[in-house]
Please model this.
Amino acid sequence: MKIAIIGGGLAGLTAAAYLSSHPEIEGTVFERSPQLGGRAFTYEKAGFTLNYGAHAVYGIDRHTLRHMEDELGITIPSKQVDKRKVMYAKNGRLTPAPLDFVNIMKTEVLTTMDKVRFVGEVAAIIGNLHQLKNYPTLGDYLDQSHAADDVKELWAHLVCSNFFITPEEARKVSGEVIADYYHNLFLSSRPVNYVLGSWAVITNQLKEKVENSGRWTISVKEPVETILQDGKQFLLNTKSRELLPFDAVIIALPVQQVVKLMESSPWEAAMIPYMDNTCTEVMVYDLGFSTIVARPFHYISDMDNKLFISDVSATDNTVAPENGQLLQGIAYLNDEFATEEERKQYLEKKSSQLEALFDQHYPNWRDHVAVKRVSKKAMVSSVKNIASNRLLPHQLPEVPFYFCGDGCEGKGELAERAFSSARIVAQQLLSQQNEKAKVSSI
Ligand SMILES: Cc1cc2nc3c(=O)[nH]c(=O)nc-3n(C[C@H](O)[C@H](O)[C@H](O)COP(=O)(O)OP(=O)(O)OC[C@H]3O[C@@H](n4cnc5c(N)ncnc54)[C@H](O)[C@@H]3O)c2cc1C
Model:
């Protein structure tokens, strides 16, 4: 069986790594860019190792990566961000983030009575007893909840920071999605981790596994432009080659690009329900300093302005030169503006708010900048997981392809959905192949 995988991001590489272990499956991964990794690619600049996108792994002990380590024989070294150095900023004051029982006791974001209430809510989520799962959205639940405003604000803020969205959007996430997500995360003993040495550690191992099989090739700088069906076969046209034959096709792209690839094809109409999905976007402000400017905490989440700063090198010192420091600022973005001018002003305001947060906690940082990268609108998740959007299933009845990526159905959020959806798709194909082998041997 010969399989084509379109897209060499986390999802495409994960699917290829699983499939490459089967002796009767061969294939090609087609990647548009010169490098692999997609939104999780890593680059080196002036001695700093910068992740373009993904940094944190949430709940790594219960994450799909754990299955991948066992099943693919890869190793993901990681380090837990020091929970005592994870802070929330509220009304200009820093206070511990309520990540665990010790921090809940210390934090000032909740009064004593609210702490009791919040601990009760955490216990109900862990026990799968929380009513939240029965509400269409978080907003619907909060509107009827008798909890104090601080507890409600904390719920919205938690969803903002794990889903990378604004509080308005957090209220639109389905109650079931949130209850499921936090059931997993509250049971984790390692809530926020960094992959030591950057996410290239993951993509390099997946790539190696694929290439070492000897049956797979990875072709970079080769975007797929169209797919044709010829009986049971699929013929791919890429930028440089025509009519490449395959028995199955996995599309591992952001949903917006899946829709584009299907334009003017027999499968265009099947994409209509997924065309209007909105994506999650953030502003990214990466800063590499030639010296350690200050290290008051390792992560600070600004509840008032919905921004955060991670001192990435405080947890992973391999990503900065000796005595250097690598910070990443992120601002969650709204996407509804009446005019282009309004949107421009909003982005400028966000950039100033991030700089003000740097000024407050890293005095004179401007004198030590060795590397700076500002990305005004980076796509975090191709489908924002709010109730009005629809994640793409792994298969559609009227379309003969498989789909995976962070805009597809799967476990977890962000990168975990890219990994988990790819793992599911690969397992489906592997079990079909094994069934075929059984039938032909009878
Ligand atoms: C700033 C930022 C911060 C983030 N932080 C986190 C985090 O802390 N934790 C976390 O879990 N996740 C995080 N994410 C999200 C994570 O990076 C993504 O969910 C994940 O990388 C998506 O992987 P994917 O394979 O689904 O898609 P992609 O990475 O988009 O991969 C798709 C690939 O397909 C290629 N392609 C496109 N069109 C074609 C074509 N026609 N032919 C061939 N190839 C094509 C693209 O070049 C790309 O390489 C972050 C993302 C960003 C941007």
Remarks:
- The chain has a mean pLDDT of 95.
- The pocket of flavin-adenine dinucleotide is lined by residues 6-12, 30-33, 38-40, 53-56, 223-224, 252-254, 257, 261, 282, 284, 378-381, 405-406, 414-416, 418 (CB under 6 Å).
- The chain has 13 helices and 20 strands.
- The chain has three domains: 2-40+199-277+385-441, 97-191, 280-381.
